[in-house]
């Protein structure tokens, strides 16, 4: 799929795979290797004009300018956190839509949390993005542009080391563009980020999870579980009525066995809803069904939801019960907690030793 320039019908070369780009350049009677040159300019040197691509012949640069373009994205705001080393970016897309990304530093690790959709259709009751409703899917180029723009702003010797799909949207509901974006992120001609440093977080679209398993990508998969009974999970996440806990855990297990990687379960702790001792015991039992580790995420209070974060001692007690026999990441209250994120949930995603540590404010 190529993205037509909204005003001019020009083709966006960003977001095309090497294969697609090779096909295009040969159609233009150019040698195939031009595709790699173009990718190198777009992804390694972050060029947005053909004029800047100085190792291409001048007439080719002119021809490309006439028929194609390289998308970029417009940063509306950058909100640095005072409390720690996170920066929230608000981007404006060509149609005026806005999405957020969060840049997080932790020693040598530079993580970017990307959005995959404008808004979200999953309607999870505790999530601020859900309150916006769903507008549209992002293209692969728009997903990549979040990374490329942020990377351009880093010191020259630094680059993004980790990517988490935990921003706005449900990545597996935008399946094709998400997978394409991952392939371009990991391609050496693209951003060259190792698959193992990329995490896709899903609300549990079991059918898509199985399809994702068949892609044979060696990235990380995080399932937002958030409930230990179908009743509670359906209340929090309506998608559970379609893909209940049993099915979604089966799909996660199949992924973990096929990729030989432990899955991550995410569990947002909400006071009086899913934080009881019984929940903790049930969660421990559910975790026994698959190779996995757990991220406990104290609920990040948002406007328009009546949910509350549990008290610290309750969170700790929950963690102790689940951690008995299982890998549970330490709970971190950090990463951009003071950044007023429009979608309210992008603040504190954090990754340590392959373990996702999201969402605390
Ligand atoms: N749609 C995907 C990715 C976006 S949400 C998914 O559901 O996984 C990323 C993570 O943020 C999910 O684990 C979700 O449960 C969590 N989350 C959403 N709203 C939150 C809030 N208000 N407080 C804490 N975590 C939240």
Structure ligands:
S-adenosyl-L-homocysteine
Instruction: State the end-to-end CA separation.
Output: 39 Å
Mean pLDDT over the residues = 89
Instruction: Give the CATH H-level superfamily of the largest domain.
Output: Aldolase class I
Q: Which segments are poorly predicted (pLDDT under 50) over 5 or more consecutive residues?
A: 334-338, 340-361
Radius of gyration: 21 Å
CATH class group of the largest domain: Alpha Beta
The level of helicity is: 25-40%
Structural class: alpha/beta
CATH architecture of the largest domain: Alpha-Beta Barrel
Domain module count: 2
Count of DSSP strands: 16
Give the biggest beta sheet.
10 strands, mixed
Tally the helices.
11
Strand content: 15-25%
Query: What is the third-level CATH name, the topology of the largest domain?
Result: TIM Barrel
**How do the helices and strands follow one another from N- to C-terminus?**
EHHHEEEEEEHEHEHEHEHHEHEHEEE
Question: What features would you highlight for this structure?
Answer:
disordered C terminus, 11 helices, DNA polymerase, domain 1, alpha/beta, 361 residues, TIM Barrel, single chain, two-stranded parallel ribbon
SSE inventory with pairings:
Layout: E1 11-12, H1 18-27, H2 33-44, H3 58-67, E2 68-69, E3 74-80, E4 86-92, E5 98-106, E6 109-113, E7 117-119, H4 128-132, E8 134-137, H5 140-153, E9 162-165, H6 175-186, E10 198-202, H7 206-214, E11 220-224, H8 230-236, H9 245-259, E12 263-269, H10 277-287, E13 292-298, H11 312-323, E14 327-328, E15 351-352, E16 355-356
Parallel strand pairs: 1-2, 6-9, 9-10, 10-11, 11-12, 12-13, 13-14
Antiparallel strand pairs: 3-4, 4-5, 5-6, 7-8, 15-16
Bound molecules: S-adenosyl-L-homocysteine.
């Amino acid at each position: 799929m190529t993205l037509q320039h909204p005003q001019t019908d020009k083709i966006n070369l960003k977001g095309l795979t090497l294969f697609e780009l090779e096909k295009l350049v040969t159609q233009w009677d150019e040698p195939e290797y031009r595709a790699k040159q173009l990718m190198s300019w777009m992804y390694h040197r972050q060029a947005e004009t053909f004029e800047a691509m100085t190792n291409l012949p001048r007439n080719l640069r002119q021809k490309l300018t006439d028929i194609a373009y390289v998308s970029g994205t417009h940063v509306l705001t950058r909100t640095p956190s005072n409390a720690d080393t996170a920066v929230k970016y608000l981007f404006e897309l060509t149609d005026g839509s806005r999405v957020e990304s969060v840049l997080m530093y932790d020693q040598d690790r530079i993580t970017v949390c990307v959005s995959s959709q404008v808004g979200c259709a999953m309607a999870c009751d505790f999530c601020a993005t859900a309150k916006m409703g769903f507008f549209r899917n992002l293209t692969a180029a728009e997903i990549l542009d979040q990374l490329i723009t942020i990377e351009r702003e880093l010191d020259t010797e630094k680059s993004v080391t980790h990517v988490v799909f935990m921003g706005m949207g449900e990545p597996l509901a935008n399946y094709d563009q998400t997978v394409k974006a991952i392939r371009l992120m990991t391609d050496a001609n693209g951003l060259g980020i190792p698959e193992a440093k990329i995490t896709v977080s899903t609300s549990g679209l079991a059918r898509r999870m199985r399809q994702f398993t068949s892609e044979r990508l060696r990235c990380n998969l995080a399932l937002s579980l958030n409930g230990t009974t179908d009743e509670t999970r359906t209340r929090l996440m309506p998608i559970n009525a379609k893909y209940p806990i049993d099915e979604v855990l089966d799909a996660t297990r199949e992924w973990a066995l096929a990729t030989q990687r432990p899955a991550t379960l995410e569990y947002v702790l909400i006071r009086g809803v899913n934080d009881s001792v019984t929940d903790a015991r049930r969660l421990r039992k559910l975790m026994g069904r698959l190779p996995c580790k757990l991220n406990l995420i104290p609920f990040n209070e948002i406007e328009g939801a009546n949910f509350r974060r549990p008290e610290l001692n309750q969170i700790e007690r929950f963690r102790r019960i689940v951690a008995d026999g299982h890998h549970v990441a330490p709970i971190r209250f950090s990463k951009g907690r003071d950044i007023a994120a429009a979608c309210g949930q992008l603040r504190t995603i954090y990754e340590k030793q392959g373990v996702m540590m999201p969402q605390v404010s």
